[in-house]
Design a protein that fits this description.
Order of helices and strands: EHHEEEEEEEEEEEEEEEEEEEEEEE
Oligomer: single chain
Strand content: 35-45%
Structural class: mainly beta
Largest sheet: 7 strands, mixed
Mean pLDDT: 96
Number of strands: 24
Shape: globular
Length: 282
């Protein structure tokens, strides 16, 4: 029996998004379920063919299997690369016979061409939660583990503006070579709730946010849409949201939290963005 669960979502434009009600927005952009014991969840988005999901091995190793949209390729990473950040207990990722120990908030990049990938946890009572992002790739780069200490760190914001945060650029061209995937983790300081302010768009790439370390009983309101006609989606702990190239992507929580961002498109310039002045958001 397959351990992989997936769904496919087609891309829609800003004009179509305007017609969606709350349930329509959530159905098209929110990824409610990331982790299930001994399963791999994926959402296959037609924005830049981006895939986001999670693997949570409990009773034993689980294998990264190909899915229906990729069946014309011999294995999952035939023409793809994969980024992993572990948000659970320590675990192992086995790539073609080589094992990589991935601790909490550590990352692993797996390049195009890897044939067999297995996920396992060191302790089933504290299982690993491997958050997964995958994009098409046309060049093969080496598999590499990246710790939080090895990340390129950027300190932004201030407590007075409720947005003091540390950006950990982990799977980024300043740290490792990738084809088009970029991933990192932003940690908000206690007392800060806003991420990514001022909001921005980047028409040359899409993005996915994964929110975690949201305290029990708290939530995050994620803002999306064109700068002159924004919408919001209320999100809970360990949920993700798809951000199209035409949309802003920012959020405010009822507490501080951490989120992982992943991007793909035609460029690797992290700073290629069009900022939206806060007073001009509508």
């Amino acid at each position: 029996m397959s351990t992989t669960i997936f769904e496919s979502r087609y891309a829609i434009g800003p004009n179509e998004a305007k017609t969606l009600d709350t349930q329509g927005l959530r159905k098209n952009f929110l990824i409610e379920k990331i982790f299930t014991a001994d399963k791999i969840h994926f959402v296959y988005s037609h924005y830049d063919r981006y895939m986001a999901g999670g693997a949570m091995p409990v009773s034993g190793p689980i294998k990264l299997e190909t899915i229906e949209p990729l069946l014309k390729e011999p294995f999952f990473l035939s023409r793809r690369e994969l980024g992993i950040i572990n948000v659970g207990g320590a675990g192992l990722v086995d790539v073609d016979g080589t094992s990589y120990e991935i601790g909490h908030k550590e990352a692993l990049y797996i390049g195009k061409g890897a044939q067999e990938v297995y996920f396992s946890s060191n302790d089933k009572n504290n299982p690993a939660k491997f958050y997964l992002n995958s994009t098409p790739a046309h060049h093969s780069y080496p598999t590499k583990r990246v710790t939080k200490d090895e990340a390129n760190k950027i300190e932004l914001g201030a407590l007075e503006m409720a947005n003091h945060r540390t950006i950990n650029q982990m799977l980024l061209n300043k740290v490792i070579d990738t084809c088009q995937l970029q991933m990192g983790m932003t940690e908000l300081k206690p007392g800060s709730v806003w991420n990514t302010m001022p909001a921005h768009t980047h028409d040359r790439r899409m993005e996915v946010y994964f929110y975690f370390e949201v305290p029990e009983g708290q939530s995050v309101s994620h803002f999306m849409g064109p700068t002159d006609e924004t919408r919001h989606i209320w999100m809970q702990n360990e949920q993700a949201v798809i951000s199209p190239p035409w949309s802003i992507h920012a959020g405010a929580g009822t507490s501080n939290y951490t989120f992982i961002w992943g991007m793909a498109g035609e460029n690797l310039d992290y700073d290629d963005m069009d900022k939206s002045p806060i007073t001009e958001l509508r």
